[in-house]
Design brief:
- With 294 residues, the protein is of the alpha/beta class.
- The longest helix is centred in the last third of the chain and has 13 residues, at 191-203.
- It is built from ten helices and 13 strands.
- It is 30% helix and 27% strand.
- It has two domains: 6-126, Rossmann fold (3-Layer(aba) Sandwich); 130-293, 2-Layer Sandwich (Dihydrodipicolinate Reductase, domain 2), CATH 3.30.360.10.
- Strands 8-9-10-7-11-12-13 form a seven-stranded mixed sheet, with helices on one face. A six-stranded parallel sheet has the order 3-2-1-4-5-6, sandwiched between helices.
Length: 294
């Protein structure tokens, strides 16, 4: 499947769509030709803001899928809608870019994977964190043997609130707190997806998983009380830790991932992490730099 220009239909024009659209708009080989949202005013507003006034506007995703002028669909919907719309897009012969997480559960994911494998069209679950320059630098350092064989990755993220924070509509926050729509809490099924992707990027898939959430009460934007602390931890033990193959490691000790999350208030979102190996560590602080230490 090759095109000089990929014609894109965006299904779901909520807050996150601004970040996706910016790259299509900057790419001379892409053109946004259709926008869909059940709140059609959102789609109309995005068309104006992005300067794509010729794009087709609709509140029915099926019209986008039936449009022969759409080559690829970018699906940016609440999680419970992913399976239905992605399956329909595959059946319509479209290339598909799907926002993470893929689906609400493993059974749905298996259904979607099976459909994608038989479609003959490109299908991806969107994950941008592994392409962030500091992460790419860390990956290169590990490939060069700078820290030896990786044994542990620690990831910490603290969502917060500040005057300069990225504004998310209340409606978007609301469905993220509804398990039937989100699949789980935001710290696992939203930002947590990026953190797990980083761990798998460096260590591969885990063999066994241990996890706990000590408190998961979301902060109230209207409350004058201090925001409650939320903390979760995820530990994945992987015995076959070779970077280049799936053969078991000769060592008896496992590779592990530790992921913790907490609310900060006041203060902006903060993120940090480190990857330890047999010969040193690669340290990432606030997503801006990478340094190695023996």
């Amino acid at each position: 499947m090759t095109f000089d220009t990929v014609r894109v239909g965006i299904i779901g024009t909520g807050r996150i769509s601004d970040l996706h659209a910016s790259e299509y708009l900057a790419n001379r080989h892409a053109r946004i030709v259709a926008l869909c949202d059940n709140a059609i005013a959102n789609a109309e507003g995005r068309a104006k803001a992005w300067g794509v006034n010729e794009a087709r506007i609709t509140d029915d995703y099926r019209q986008v899928l039936a449009d022969p002028d759409v080559d690829l669909v970018e699906i940016l919907l609440p999680h419970h809608l992913h399976l239905e719309v992605a399956l329909a897009a595959i059946a319509a012969g479209k290339a598909v870019s799907l926002q993470k997480p893929m689906t609400l559960d493993l059974a749905q994911a298996d259904t979607l994977v099976a459909a994608a494998e038989t479609s003959g069209r490109p299908f991806k679950v969107f994950e941008n964190f592994i392409f962030y320059p500091p992460v790419m630098k860390a990956k290169a350092l590990i490939a060069e043997g700078a820290i030896g064989e990786p044994v542990t990755i620690r990831l910490k993220s603290n969502p917060g609130a500040s005057k300069t924070a990225w504004k998310v509509p209340a409606s978007a926050e609301a469905w993220r707190q509804d398990k039937s729509q989100a699949g789980g809490g935001p710290l696992v099924f939203d930002d947590g997806g990026h953190q797990f992707a980083l761990a798998w990027h460096f260590l591969g898939n885990p063999d066994t998983v241990h996890a706990f959430i000590s408190r998961s009460v979301a902060p109230s934007a209207s409350s004058s009380m201090p925001r409650p602390w939320c903390r979760s931890a995820f530990r994945a033990t992987r015995w076959a830790i070779s970077r280049s193959s799936t053969r078991p490691s000769s060592r008896s000790s496992p590779a592990t991932m530790h992921r913790t999350t907490g609310w900060r208030s006041p203060g902006p979102r903060a993120s940090s992490g480190s990857i330890a190996g047999m010969a040193g560590s690669a340290i990432r602080r606030r997503w801006r730099s990478i340094a190695t230490a023996p």
